[in-house]
Design a protein that fits this description.
about 180 residues; mainly alpha; 2 domains; 6 helices
């Protein structure tokens, strides 16, 4: 999430500064090159300073280049607005994306493992959250049921996202139509 925010922030800034100089015919390829440059930068920085996190992210970090959020914001906002507005837009979109990732990961961690494990939280970034004796928040002390493993897989994230969207739609329907 923070890597995406970094890429959004700096690509939006550069695109907004260059928007009057990039010809319309090569606008999209130019945006992709700019975005790819910042993704490569963050990838190299993370390999140098956060190798465990880079290894755990695997192919997902380079996939930021083709993330529709970043290209969409470059096309819809940064290419048409000033640098200041583009920075604020990038911060809002990036932090919102980060919040959504955190929410989905927390909501899928518990049904998948029946605990919230802080031992690898941030893989060393937030070491103050670690407790050497018990780095987990566990409700069930007995190993009768070890959780629904589907939630720990990528499909579990889609399932949780679907539940979040269904919950949101239910709230909107109740506001619109009342309790019927």
């Amino acid at each position: 999430g923070l890597a995406t925010t970094f890429v959004l922030l700096f690509s939006n800034l550069l695109i907004s500064l260059l928007r009057n100089f990039i010809p319309t015919k090569v606008r999209i390829p130019s945006y992709i090159v700019i975005i790819a440059s910042f993704v490569t930068t963050i990838d190299l920085l993370m390999q140098a300073y956060l190798p465990l996190l880079t290894n755990s992210l695997g192919v997902f970090l380079p996939l930021i280049v083709v993330n529709c959020i970043i290209l969409g914001r470059a096309e819809a906002f940064a290419g048409k607005n000033t640098a200041g507005k583009s920075i604020l837009d990038a911060l809002g979109m990036g932090l919102g994306f980060t919040f959504a990732l955190i929410l989905i990961s927390l909501l899928r961690e518990f049904p998948g493992t029946l605990k919230i494990d802080f031992s690898d939280f941030g893989l060393g970034i937030l070491t103050f959250l670690k407790n050497a004796d018990n780095p987990t928040l566990s409700i069930f002390r007995f190993n009768i049921y070890s959780g629904a493993k589907i939630f720990t897989m990528p499909a579990g994230a889609f399932f949780i996202l679907g539940l979040i969207l269904a919950f949101k739609q239910n709230i909107e329907n109740k506001k619109k139509y009342g309790d019927k």
